[in-house]
Amino acid sequence: VVYQVYNNFSLIHPDFKFSLEDDIHKSTIISMYRNHLEQVLIILSDNAFKYSQERKEIHFAMSRTSREVQIAVQDFGEGISQEDANHVFDRFYRVDKARSREKGGNGLGLSIAQKLIEGYGGSISLESSLGHGSIFRITLPITNTDK
Ligand code: ATP
To answer: Per-residue confidence of the chain (147 residues) as pLDDT tens digits?
Structure first.
């Protein structure tokens, strides 16, 4: 995936590099400020790490359809119940108030991530199983004309 870079903002995390295995799709372009995508990935990675105890492991996966790129960020941590999953993208929502307080944070990260992604015509969703981990999936529209 090639970013359409509109500015000269320096990379926050130079370690993030994205590529799809499939050479055919080398020209896949997402039009998004690079630092915005990084911000979203940092929020998701930070959470994945923060809310995992024994198995602190993060899996990233990318795929695409003819219209969109999908990025999945998976952890194997405490997971989120279905009821809480309906609210985690709300501003200031935190699942376990006491425990979350120990870990810092304001319940803002995911709402910011959602606003950013939706601002580019994409979406962010959550699949989670309490006690087993979570997968956050981002989709972003492909903007090349030759998709
Ligand atoms: P911050 O404002 O620093 O991001 P935060 O982590 O509390 O703080 P959000 O990122 O919006 O805020 O997350 C909201 C809540 O959703 C968290 O408090 C946590 O309870 C839950 N949560 C988010 N990501 C995960 C995850 N990967 N696994 C389990 N729970 C999560």
So the answer is: 444 443 333 333 444 445 555 555 556 777 788 788 889 999 999 999 999 999 999 999 888 888 898 999 999 999 999 999 999 999 988 887 655 556 667 889 999 999 999 999 999 999 999 999 999 999 998 876 554
| Length of the chain, in residues | 147
| Surface-to-core class of residue 45, CB atoms within 10 Å of its CB (0-12 exposed, 13-18 middle, 19+ buried) | middle
Rounded CA separation 96/77 (Å): 14
Q: Ligand 1 pocket check: which of 91, 93, 94 to mutate, most ligand atoms within 8 Å of Cβ?
A: 94
Single pTM value for the model: 0.84
**Protein residue closest via CA to atom 7 of ligand 1:** 107
ipTM of model over 0.90: yes
Residue 111 CA, closest ligand 1 atom number: 11
Give residue 77 CA to ligand 1 midpoint distance, Å: 12
Alpha carbon nearest to ligand 1 atom 8, residue: 105
